[in-house]
Amino acid sequence: LQTGHSCLTRSYEKSRTKLAQSHNICCCCTRNCPIKYCSPRKPAVSRMAFTSNDVTINNDSRELYFDKHVDYIANHGNDKNDYEYCMTEFLRMSGIYWGVTGLDLMNKLDRLDKQLIVDFIKKCQCPVTGGIAACDGHDPHILYTLSAVQILIIYERLDAIDVDQIAKYVASLQQLDGSFFGDKWGEVDTRFSFCAVAILSLIGRMDEIDLEKAVNFVMSCCNSDGGFGSKPNAESHAGLIYCCVGFLSITDQLHRLDCDRLAWWLCERQLPSGGLNGRPEKLPDVCYSWWVLASLTIIGRLHWISSERLENFILSCQDSETGGFADRTGNLPDIFHTLFGLGALSLLGDKRLKPVNPTYCMPEYVIKRCNLKPKVMVL
């Protein structure tokens, strides 16, 4: 049996179902999560976690390669002729956010050139729309606008951009049904709903949008399994669940969630390796350590999974030579997975890192400095 609130092996499936039927619960986990059957004839016994898609980890040490991670982030992007640097121009702004936040969590923010970063962001704000692009010369997008605002909030340099134009840009992307486009090309996704309220709450301009319609759209994306997809009737996905739960945390609407059902779906993402995947039958990935843990933290159910096994998985994905975290053990590290590996460890209570806010994925002290109080549930 796997410890914590997670799956059983295939050989126990029949006994698991019988026990669930006798106790009127949907699983026979160690904590007897009180999720009732959807129907007396069809008990909601999930088989999602019975998957052969997992990895083997070899992690004899619980050491966090702290100094190597600091160097990995601080030196990232120094070589402008590097192939990886050239090929990731389209997400440069988010890359800077991942690096700035990661170093701040390690109390090493001084390793980056603050003024250079601020000047870069100023060049990326579109004078026509007010939105911010991933890189100078690219089209603005709500994703990169959020990254830029997060960076400037951390640096206390929001004055470097035109905040009024940012607010107007975000408001211009809201549609009649309450959803948001990501940019002028018209893609709708719940990620963009989260970005919109995150940006506007950080700059103090939540009154710029129709909040009631925005909430109703997000809730229309809720599925019968308790999860959320990118749009109505789309498959539940851990990353999108984080966006919707974060959205509801910012807008004080967490009471509209079926938290037990949602938490059960999220806990089913934990595999025997200890890692978390984003949806059924997929491999575990360090980034889902953040999406799943942050969601569980916001709804007050972090204790439903095996934290120790997850921590071992995350630490096994470090590169002991270069620093940084990869998606899985043995793969090459990148700055994206490095931030979310560090963020997940912070949520798990690693004292070597600053506390991280689960809603904004920013250091907790920054959110308190802004007098923001995103809602979390306490059991």
TrEMBL record:
MF terms in GO: metal ion binding; Rab geranylgeranyltransferase activity
Record note on cofactor: Binds 1 zinc ion per subunit.
Gene3D superfamilies found in the cross-reference section: 1.50.10.20
Annotated CDD domains: GGTase-II
EC number: 2.5.1.60
Family annotation (InterPro entries): PGGT1B-like, Prenyltrans, Ptb1, Terpenoid_cyclase/PrenylTrfase
Superkingdom of origin: Eukaryota
Reactions catalysed according to its record: geranylgeranyl diphosphate + L-cysteinyl-[protein] = S-geranylgeranyl-L-cysteinyl-[protein] + diphosphate
Gene Ontology annotations for the cellular component aspect, listed alphabetically: Rab-protein geranylgeranyltransferase complex
Cofactor section: Zn(2+)
Domain Prenyltransferase alpha-alpha toroid: residue ranges: 66-362
Keywords carried by this UniProt record: Metal-binding, Phosphoprotein, Prenyltransferase, Repeat, Transferase, Zinc
Pfam families: Prenyltrans
SUPFAM superfamilies hit by this protein: Terpenoid cyclases/Protein prenyltransferases
Role according to the record: Catalyzes the transfer of a geranylgeranyl moiety from geranylgeranyl diphosphate to both cysteines of Rab proteins with the C-terminal sequence -XXCC, -XCXC and -CCXX, such as RAB1A, RAB3A, RAB5A and RAB7A.
Quaternary state and interactors: Heterotrimer composed of RABGGTA, RABGGTB and CHM; within this trimer, RABGGTA and RABGGTB form the catalytic component B, while CHM (component A) mediates peptide substrate binding. The Rab GGTase dimer (RGGT) interacts with CHM (component A) prior to Rab protein binding; the association is stabilized by geranylgeranyl pyrophosphate (GGpp). The CHM:RGGT:Rab complex is destabilized by GGpp. Interaction of RABGGTB with prenylated PTP4A2 precludes its association with RABGGTA and inhibits enzyme activity. Interacts with CHODL.
Protein family: Belongs to the protein prenyltransferase subunit beta family.
Protein name according to UniProt: Geranylgeranyl transferase type-2 subunit beta
Protein source organism: Anopheles atroparvus (European mosquito)
